[in-house]
Amino acid sequence: MVSNYDIVYIFMWVTPYGSTFFERAVRSLSKVLVYDFDDSIHIEQNKKTSLFLKIFKSNKKSNYLIENSDHVIISSPFHAEYCSNLNYLNKCTYIPCSLNTGRFTIKEKKVTREKIVIGWTGTFSSKVYLDTLREVFIELSKRYDYVLKVIGNFDYELNGVNLEVIEWKKKTEIADLHTFDIGVYPLIKDQWALGKGALKAMQYMAIGIPTVATNYGTNPQVIDNNENGILVDSSKEWLEKLEYLILNPNERERIGINARKKIVNYYSVKSLGHLYLEVFRESNNEPV
């Protein structure tokens, strides 16, 4: 029974669809409620959605939890002002996304020379970001013999590019990521992307490969440009930086090593776990 616990923690929502009925029920039964969410689920997306989704998967659930929880945890600092103002106690804490670096292990260095693999991983909902690089990949294929590997839950086609599509599976996720030489994390510069915590970029960094990412949102906080990743602002820069990494294996190795260190030191479960404990203790009126 929910009421038996000192603290109830909710990530994203109680149920993904429907009204706020279950969220209200959990709130009424909880002594202390801590709400943690990712992305910009509290705002309406600027894209066409079905009538079903508009009715049954709106932002009402997340906004109710933001307003009525005893503490809100966010994975993007860009939501801090909104959440703090909406929350009835003005309690909001930014805790970056974190990774289990024991699971996301560093990729072993291969001696044999193979085709460079540029990789992207994500879901159908984030496919729109991958699509922004279609022309870049096509142009790059005219210059270099590389493989574009897409890990996701959807089919993908791109004429003129040596493309390999793999279905995401938890069992093979790490092994599949280890086939990447370069990871890409493109974003569209809009309000929705500001809520992203750069988790996919962190995954590439954790396995020790260079990441090329859009210079937007939380990406510049996670990636130190040209040190443990590369930030870009235009299609021209995407092409230039990917070409640079293809041609410079030593730079790929240097950036990848630095990237792994950054994640272990600042974005691992071990390095950030204490921040969650502080929120729980404060919310339960315990010494921090």
From TrEMBL:
This is Glycosyl transferase family 1 domain-containing protein. It holds the Pfam family Glycos_transf_1. One of its GO terms (molecular function) is glycosyltransferase activity. SUPFAM superfamilies: UDP-Glycosyltransferase/glycogen phosphorylase. CDD domains: GT4_PimA-like (cd03801). Residues 108-261 form the Glycosyl transferase family domain.
